[in-house]
Amino acid sequence: MKKILVYHVGQLGDSLVTIPAIKAIKQKHQNCSIVLLTDEHVGKNYVSSWDVLKNTNLIDQVIFYEPSKILKLKYLFSLSEQLRNLKPTDIYNLVLRVNLKSKCRDYLFFRIIFKLSKYTSMDIIKYPPQKDKEGNLIQNTPQWKRLVEKVSTSYENVKFQLPIHKESLFNIEKLIQTERGFETLRVVIGPSSKMSAKCWPSEFYIDLGEMLINRYENIEIFIVGGPEDSLLADSLLEAWGVNKIQNYCGKLTISESAELIRKCNIYIGNDTGIMHLAAMVGTVCLTIFSSRDYPGLWEPFGDNHVSIRKNIDCEGCMLVECNKLNNACLKLTSVDEVFFEATKILSANGFK
User: Fold this and answer.
1) CA 177 to CA 222: how far, in whole Å?
2) How many angstroms separate the CA atoms of 331 and 131, rounded?
3) Interaxial angle between packed helices 254-262 and 273-280, expressed in degrees from 0 to 180 and rounded to the nearest 10
4) CB atoms closer than 10 angstroms to residue 182
5) Are the CB atoms for 129 and 284 separated by under 8 Å?
6) What is the tens place of the pLDDT at every residue in 162-196?
7) Strands 90-93 and 3-7
8) What is the helix (H) or strand (E) element at residue 266, kind and residue range?
9) For strand 118-121 and strand 245-247, is the pairing parallel, antiparallel, or unpaired?
10) Is the distance from CB of 260 to CB of 172 less than 8 angstroms?
């Protein structure tokens, strides 16, 4: 059987964004085996590409390499031999965060090993972010669309949802007691991020939660994130002071998080990996974006989501932490605006 090599490295959000492209590759090469080449950080508690992609039913084989050993000649030679033995007809480099140095490095590596294989890689996005004649950041195509368009002719025919993970679904159904019925409104909130410059203020989330609880009688709110987000989640729970709120930060596997979010009617939160996970299970996303990056670039997969982002003079800063202005761009998005958009989405789904 012919083999197709897909190269990708990244954590939760970046890996989820590649899934529609891998689906397009699978559709394009229907009688071929898809082999994933990805990194493995031994002893590190990272969410790897394989952690995300292994349950998609899109990958037939995986080959790991350790970045810490890649410059050792013996290790590099062994990896090269393992890859060369695959004899892939096509190579797709789906690494998103590309600069000229990494693009040239990857091209040379794969072309030296696979001289006759067809090689496809992502185009470079220029940084610092580029502005138009009016001084606004240039609107960008979402990363998932860029990937699909690079590997296929059109993204319009690519439909995907993460397959249901039966064991995780069983665990979640026990956890949230689904027998309460379909009338229950379930909201998942993602109030945190690894970058503080992408976080809508916690006091805004407190006000939003109170408005939702007062508006909808039969509501359950689930807070999802990593273990580092648990303290923030606890502060929200304390402020809301009701029993229908649960903090699941750091308590669920990726598959369990996916099944919990699949049970929810809406995701409300920051631009995070959890947002992309929500999109990949078909849950509508209401996202509060910062202005640090290109508008549109990290929009979630699908067409029915609502994103709120404000223009500001300092947009395109690419800061990880906004020390001087204290996330001024995010504070331009009011609680009332997010609540209004949430009620519109929920009303369309039968929650008045």
Assistant:
1) 13
2) 22
3) 60
4) 7
5) no
6) 999 999 999 999 988 754 445 789 999 999 999 99
7) parallel
8) strand 266-270
9) unpaired
10) yes
